[in-house]
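FAQ
Q: What does a multi-component entry look like?
A: The components come first, one per line:
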Amino acid sequence: MAAVATPPAPPVSKTVPAPAPRRPRRVRPGRLAINLVLIAVSVLYVLPLLWMVLASVSDTNSFRLKWPSALTLDNFDAVLNVDTTYRPMLNSLLLCGFGTAVTVVASVLCAYPLSRYRSRVRRPFLYTILFSTGLPITAVMIPVYSMFVQVNLIDSMPGTTLFLAASALPFGIWLMKNFMDGVPIVLEEAARIDGANTMQVLWRVVLPLMRPGVVVVTIFTFIGMWGNFFVPFILLLSPEKLPASVSVFTFLSAHDRTQYGQLSAFSLLYSLPVVMLYLLLARKLGGGFALGGALKG
Amino acid sequence: MTTLAPAPHGTGGHPRRSRGAPAPAVRSLLRGLPTVPAVVLLAVFLAGPIAYCVYYAFTDMQLTGAAGTHFVGVDNFTRAFKDTDFLNAMWLTLLFVVGSAVIGQNTLGLALAVLMQKATQPVRALVNGVVIAAWVLPEVVAGYLMYAFFYDQGSLNSLLDAAHLPDQNWLYTTPILAVCLANVWRGTAFSLMVFTAAINDVPQELVEAAEMDGAGPWQRLWRVVLPVIRPSILTNLMLITLQTLSVFGLIYTMTRGGPGNKSETLPIFMYQQAFQNSLIGYGTAIALVLLVVGALFSVVYIRLLKLEDD
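Then the predicted structure of the entire assembly, as tokens:
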């Protein structure tokens, strides 16, 4: 999408304006073949997505990919009610909204000393954070369940929110620290001399300078939580507390094949926010690839 | 920018000290204060459960409650390594990680990144768009779409029929292949992004010099580009292995580990032992195995990355 538009890779200048000025004949068939292969891969990639879109507006239920005989919005009509769509989406929004807020605030605070001060604990601390970004969260869910049962946090939305926030923290802190390292120290020192304390410096000087970084961490954390299925699946029990990720799953297991049109419609509605947020993120990052760079540290 | 970063460490305390201020020990405690919320959250919700995990893996705890829980030593582990279902799950996890991540996502991501360098702009935008779209979709939605795609009367079989190729009931005959392909479909975007960034960073002079010396496109790829981006390949392999190890929702939505246990990877086996067979202790022991494997990969991963200023 917008993602590729930016990187000024040298081949671009070769491709677009004039077909390969240096080696006119030899390259062309190769490039054509490459384009065809890539188009074929894209078609394979897009088929499942296309099926979902078509199934959601089709009046017949089928797993076959075919053009609907008549377009209809009945499927959307059928799912747009409190029980099927609005409540699960609201639950998702509450879990992910508060979870993201906690993660972002805690990681900004935690990243500041890590980025600005040197001490004996800094190095082990950073390595622990980096190590925890790699731990499979799936594996801790059973002990988390036992623990939540003992402290009576099972089926609690705040408990689940805090767990989601904690599980996103290592990566959040790591990204935030890398962004904060990019903020020059000079302005900060000026503010210190004028008598500002650490919190004032962080809030008035550092954060405004790293707003893009904060936005990236926020959106990235939110997308991750929105799609998270296993955590709420284990920690929440009451149907009225379940977020949309779990309700897609229960919808799929509870209904027979006659309702796949409705499930597709609901899946589309559920996916829409993260797709939009990703587009925003891609624009912020000037092309999606910076995240790969951030991951490399 | 990175050159500026070390500066504050030496001078950061200076203005404060000039105002006649706390002893160094107190000062460093005060400086560490902002980390408290994060540290508390991590200690309670991550370190706590991991410690729990280590403890409960050696007990016979059941879902009914902690009352009848006894310490049983390594029983859960000896049981696991004699349990054919567990060994099956280990084997399937290995197949899943190697097949879908190490071979599938890594190779496809690299191939697409290399080919995209030579493709025309609209085609690159197209590939990027669809590959990333599959990645951005929530896990259960991806699972649902892949279920529909591989279903007996699904899109894949209608494609195969149209091409007069033999079709089969993918989710029944080769469920592990179906979930591997599903994970390739969903996860390749990550490798693609890492490799595109890495290839863009390869110094152009290097490639041009090789071209001057008469190296063909293949030689340039094998002898110049791949050696230069080797660190990125290693990092990517570690990260996608870690991600793939903990995939639960995608497989559970598609097959629930079935039919039988033919696509039951470790996370699914763990879940079923703990919650469907009510054996929390045994499930926790399996979780510990998964955690240790993940931790080993994670250690290798942080050794590959060096903290840049240390």
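Q: Is there any commentary attached?
A: Sometimes. For this entry: Residues 116 and 255 of chain A are 55 Å apart (CA to CA).
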